Amino acid sequence: MTDVLAAVDESFFTDRSGGSCIQDNKLFCPGWVADNYDRYVEPTLQHLVLVGSAVAAGFLIAFALAILAHRHRFLSTPFLAGTGVLYTIPSISFFFLLLPVTGRGALTAIIALTAFNLQIIFRNITTGLRNVPSEVTEAATGIGMTRSQILWRVELPLAMPEIIAGLRIATVSTVALATLAVFANGGGLGTEIVTGSNITFKTGIIVAGSIAVAMAILFDGVLLLIGKLLAPWKRVAA
Amino acid sequence: MIGVPLASFGLFGEAFQFVFEGREAETGGVTVGGTSQVLELAAKQFEVTILALAVAILLALPVGLLLGHYGRGEFLAVSAGNAGRAIPELALIALMAAAIGVGLVNLVVALAILGIPPILTNAYVGVKQVDRASVDAARGMGMTEMGIIRRVELPLAIPTIMGGVRTAAINIIATATIAPLAGILTLGDFIISRNVYGDAGVLAGAILVALMALALEGALAGLQWAMTSRGLKLNRS
After folding, report:
1. Which of A6, A124, B139, B154 is deepest in the core (most CB within 10 A)?
2. Which of A2, A87, A190 sits opposite B189 (nearest CB)?
3. Is A175 within 8 Å of B189 when comparing Cβ atoms?
4. Rounded to an integer, what distance in angstroms lies between the CA atom of residue A12 and that of residue A197?
5. What is the mean pLDDT of each successive set of 10 residues along chain A, which is 238 residues long?
6. Closest by alpha carbon to A163, among A118, A117, A128, A113?
7. Which CATH number fits the domain that encloses residue A123?
8. A 64-93 → B contacts, CB under 8 A
9. A2 and B85: CB-CB below 8 Å?
10. A231 φ, ψ to 5°?
11. What kind and span of H or E run contains A31?
12. Residue A93's closest chain B neighbor by CA?
């Protein structure tokens, strides 16, 4: 049996305040949270770094792939298949496929989470670009714009809502998945769930899980807002 | 036998040796790994995944189909999908095990919770997207509402519904990897219990889980292709 399931040692509960609630391991002990919220600061910051790096790297790579696939249509199928494989491999498995290459640590976790992201973002960017009406690009050609001008000044702005939608899905999923980074010694909120005797400590699991959910909602809201700012015509339409 | 040349491949060689022959446990004494333990844990992971996926489909698909057919509950169906993505898998499994208890049933329930949102949302969207003219034609021919759902909307929504089922399957099989935390030993035990299996076991577990996820995804893609009506395939090409 796994060591994380080992019986909870007494000291884990006795060095925490909260009295009988902790002793009985009740579902939620507010007193303990009030006394111990500071222990969540570092894991939360680590979690932010994991998610921020993975989504940023995923976006840059997927963006480059999507632009290539937009220019050269034949690349679209292999890119979709390749990112599909990376998406399908479970992150926790990916961490350790990298074990002989990057060992354990935050970098390993970030690479695996990036690999997971690619398809979601790639697919949304290519869909967004494909949905730009051909009359618009023809009009742009007609007024003498070059291909790259059309891409950057017509197609990408019009594809923005789809691109942001992809980023929102990728970010929210990554916040949830990054709790697994603890298995790769990558830190994050998962540390407060599995390390030591935490796995049986309900209050701790709830607090760590709630911070992750709150972070996902926050990122989602920020991206939604950015999307509205970048696509003002949508607000008029709605 | 094959152990000697494999050693030259470093950790990968050791992982293969772990899978096919077994290795001495890090804790000493017993031999761990080997085909029999690998097959046993793989079978458990497969069983747990299929059970949870079946529960998720049974609960989410009818609701999604009905909501989509009557065009009600869009907010519920769509926000379920959004909220589902935000559930931290690790916290869900750990809390389920700590608060309700370890065991197969609890694990299957926790995994099914992860599978329900994408299936519900995609079933709703898939049915909603069906051309209203097709539905009206079916109604004009005298089909009942249930008949319309079953014989018109469901077949036309299969690609979207299967997209949701595949997303759910990937989430479930990935999370089944941490099932040992809930007392059910799956292939993830090789990964989580490094103190027993060593890095060779960890890498072997990672490879096996990845292959299993890819195989499941491939099988479901094939199933989707087989279930999609010929008319829809013609339209797409």
Report:
1. A124
2. A2
3. no
4. 7
5. 44 55 79 82 95 98 97 95 96 92 93 96 96 94 94 94 94 96 92 78 89 95 92 62
6. A128
7. 1.10.3720.10
8. 84-85, 87-93
9. no
10. -125, 70
11. helix A30-36
12. B206
Decide if B28 is inside a domain. no
Residue B15 in domain:
no
Contact status, residue B213 vs residue A90, Cβ threshold 8 Å: yes
- Closest-CA distance, B209 to chain A, in angstroms, reads 6
Encode pLDDT of B51-98 as tens digits. 999 999 999 999 999 999 998 888 888 888 888 999 999 999 998 888
- The residues, ordered by sequence, that sit 6+ positions from A177 with a Cβ below 8 Å of its Cβ are A91, A113, A116, B89
Does B97 sit within 8 Å of A199, measured CB to CB? yes
- Domain-embedded: residue B199: no
* Cα B205-A62-A139 angle, rounded to 5 deg: 155
Tell me if B52 is assigned to some domain. yes
Mean pLDDT of B147-165: 94
Report pTM: 0.88
* A28 DSSP assignment: -
Does A7 contact chain B (CB < 8 Å)? no
Question: Which residue type, as a one-letter code, is found at position B4?
Answer: V
Check which CATH number belongs to the domain holding B227 and give it.
1.10.3720.10
Of A85, A99, A206, the CB nearest to B95: A206
SS3 B26: coil
Domain count, chain A: 1
Tally the domains of chain B: 1
Query: Is A25 among the domain residues?
Result: no
Task: Spell out the residues 6+ positions from residue B66 whose beta carbon is closer than 8 angstroms to its own.
Answer: B149
| Interacting residues of A224 by C-beta distance below 8 A, sequence separation 6+ | A164, A168
Q: What DSSP state is assigned to residue A155?
A: I
Range of the domain at B230: 38-189+217-236
A213 touching chain B per CB within 8 A: yes
Query: Nearest-CA distance from A96 to chain B in Å?
Result: 6
In a domain, A112, yes or no: yes
For residue A17, is it within any domain? no
